[in-house]
Write a structure and sequence with these properties.
Elements: H1 3-7, H2 11-22, H3 25-41, H4 52-66, H5 82-85, H6 87-90, H7 95-106, H8 111-118, H9 122-139, E1 143-147, H10 151-163, E2 167-172, H11 175-184, E3 189-193, H12 202-210, E4 217-221, E5 237-240, H13 245-257
Helix pairs in contact: 2-3, 3-4, 4-8, 7-8, 7-9, 7-13, 8-9, 9-13, 10-13, 11-12
Keywords: Phosphoprotein
Protein name: Anti-anti sigma factor/receiver protein PhyR
Modified residues (4-aspartylphosphate): 193
Length: 266
């Protein structure tokens, strides 16, 4: 099997990670393209002593780290909009903390594998994750609309959201209900399933909401690779079903991290 064939199944998830890290599909996908270009240019430099997925993320991190303007700063891809909004927060949260949080909670890497990826110890990784969660949660609070037709899943998500200190404005099970609830109580964050109770689409519900409100959205699906091809406008934040509570917490924290409505005063 060629190196390209080995890496292909992992590319959708690298896109997810890169988008979550940068807060942008465009910038995240640009880093992924740069990673692939580096691998094609120097295939002999690809780490062959580890799992291909680990090697892919390791190469990505090498690209990410060399994109810094100055040592200790976030990589720059001409940040505007959401990334510009997040600049004040980035000064409070170290890049390693955010990377550790996303690698463990969103991507499911162990502390040991994450330590390898960011050149730290497993103990350091655990401390970085705790630090990132504490800091981001302290800075970001929002009204949340949940669009989910499975009652048990909806209850679980609602519990997670409330435990983080956020307010749940409603739980919608259809497209029409979601739009109506958004109009009644404009949300600061939307968590949306893809398939809804009346066979309507959560994607369509979100499109309707975004036509009227500027709000960050996290999609929830059992088939994330279908929305992570890198060939069309796609979600920046996406959770895979079945999900871990820590995954939802990390995605919420990161989505709000880049949102204008939650920028702390001062």
């Amino acid at each position: 099997m060629s190196l390209g064939q080995e890496l292909a199944p992992h590319l959708p998830f690298l896109r997810r990670y890169a988008r979550a890290l940068t807060g942008s599909q465009a910038h995240g996908d640009a880093f992924v393209r740069a990673t692939l270009e580096a691998i094609v240019a120097q295939p002999d430099e690809f780490p062959r002593d580890v799992d291909p997925r680990l090697g892919l993320y390791k190469t990505f991190h090498a690209i990410w780290s060399t994109a810094n303007i100055e040592e200790g700063e976030e990589p720059s891809m001409s940040p505007t909009g959401a990334e510009g909004i997040a600049h004040a927060r980035l000064s409070r949260i170290t890049p390693l903390s955010r990377q550790a949080l996303l690698l463990t909670s969103l991507e499911g890497f162990s502390s040991e594998d994450t330590a390898y990826l960011i050149n730290a110890s497993p103990k350091d990784v655990d401390s970085l994750v705790a630090e990132a969660l504490e800091e981001i949660e302290r800075q970001t609070l929002a009204d949340v609309l949940i669009i989910e037709d499975e009652p048990i899943i909806a209850m679980d998500i609602e519990t997670i959201v409330r435990d983080l200190g956020h307010n749940v404005t409603g739980v919608a099970v259809t497209r029409d209900e979601a739009v109506a609830q958004a109009r009644q109580s404009p949300p600061g964050l939307v968590l949306a399933d893809i398939q809804l109770a009346d066979d309507s689409s959560g994607i369509d519900a979100v499109k309707d909401i975004l036509a009227e409100f500027s709000v960050p959205v996290i999609f929830i699906t059992a088939f994330p690779e279908r929305l992570l091809t890198g060939t069309r406008p796609e979600p920046t934040f996406l959770i895979t079903k079945p999900f871990q509570r820590s995954t939802v917490k990390a995605a919420i924290a990161q989505a709000l991290f880049f949102d204008a409505a939650t920028v702390p005063a001062g």
